[in-house]
Design a protein that fits this description.
By secondary structure, the chain is α/β, with parallel strands linked by helices. It has helices spanning 30-45, 67-71, 82-105, 121-128, 155-162, 165-174, 180-185, 196-211, 215-230, 233-247, 250-261, and strands spanning 6-11, 14-19, 51-56, 110-114, 117-119, 131-135, 139-141, 178-179, 191-193. The strands form two sheets. A six-stranded mixed beta sheet has the order 1-2-3-4-6-9, with helices on both faces. A three-stranded mixed beta sheet has the order 5-7-8. The longest helix is centred in the middle third of the chain and has 24 residues, at 82-105. It is globular and about 65 Å long.
Length: 278
């Protein structure tokens, strides 16, 4: 189906979502917040790919929240009952948060290829991805502070787990631009490439490596890493034991060794579709 804010192509086990509003610096208009989770959840639930890549056309990855979201009146509290409006606004924010949580909750790894700016909500999006890669001209900015608000769509619960706390605080308090080289140094990005073209080629190579592995094993890796991040070591060890007791597939192990000995690509079963209704 056509989307307002991005193009989606799926080939060779890789779902490639390309933000397609370069003239507006790929800012996130209201349609984006509905379309992105719809697309990601469809890929995840229906096992349409083995890995998801996010990239962008134009100079910048994204300028973050489009001004139309702020100017639409959705953020204004009616004077007659500000408390009731505040309660409703909380649910509005939760809906926006779910857009990026869809990336974190997808069964497939999500790789972000970031060139130019990842500003404001762009940082929220990037931190919800499994891995981030940048071109040399990339920069990251928690812009919300500079416009008089506290970032609320996902930056804080994720950024402080990706980079040293002091850097998370500095980025938030100052709204400074953190260049790609510094982002790599503090662990915000996995690697930096010389150009946009080299970035996309490099990320696609990594995506191909992921897609060549057992989808069940990769999905298990993502689930375990997310679980370990949020739980104690003892709890995670118990969980991985239960996971493998239920889902370790010896056929995939045998196929991996056999394919290597026969010098061919391994063939694995795809994940099953998720049934969300009876």
């Amino acid at each position: 189906m056509p989307y307002s804010c991005f193009n989606l192509d799926i080939a060779d086990g890789i779902a490639h979502i390309r933000f397609s509003r370069p003239d507006k610096f790929n800012s996130f208009i209201p349609e984006f917040w509905r379309e992105l989770p719809d697309a990601v959840n469809d890929i995840s639930d229906n096992a349409k790919a083995r890995v998801i890549v996010l990239s962008a056309e134009g100079k910048h990855f994204t300028a973050g929240m489009d001004i139309s979201v702020f100017m639409s009146g959705a953020l204004d509290a009616p004077p007659e009952n500000a408390h009731v409006a505040a309660e409703a606004f909380r649910h509005h924010v939760r809906a926006l948060q779910e857009t990026f949580s869809a990336l974190e909750n997808a069964r497939q790894p999500v790789l972000a290829a970031i060139q130019g700016g990842a500003v404001g909500a762009g940082v929220d999006l990037a931190t919800a991805c499994d891995c981030r890669y940048a071109s040399a001209d990339a920069f990251f900015c928690v812009q919300e502070t500079a416009i008089g608000m506290t970032a609320d769509v996902g930056t804080f619960p994720r950024l402080a787990k990706l980079v040293p706390e002091g850097w998370a605080r500095q980025m938030a308090y100052t709204a400074e631009r953190v260049p790609a080289a510094k982002a790599k140094e503090i662990g915000l990005v996995n690697d930096v490439f010389d150009s946009h073209e080299a970035l996309l080629a490099g990320v696609m190579t990594i995506a191909e490596q992921i897609a060549a592995h057992s989808p069940l094993a990769v999905a298990g890796c993502k689930r375990m890493i997310n679980y370990a991040r949020d739980h104690a070591t003892a709890d995670t060890l118990d969980y991985i034991g239960l996971w493998n007791a239920a889902m370790l597939r010896t056929e995939d192990i045998k196929e991996s060794y056999l394919a290597k000995s026969e010098k061919r690509s391994a063939v694995f079963d795809e994940l099953s579709k998720v049934k969300k209704s009876l």
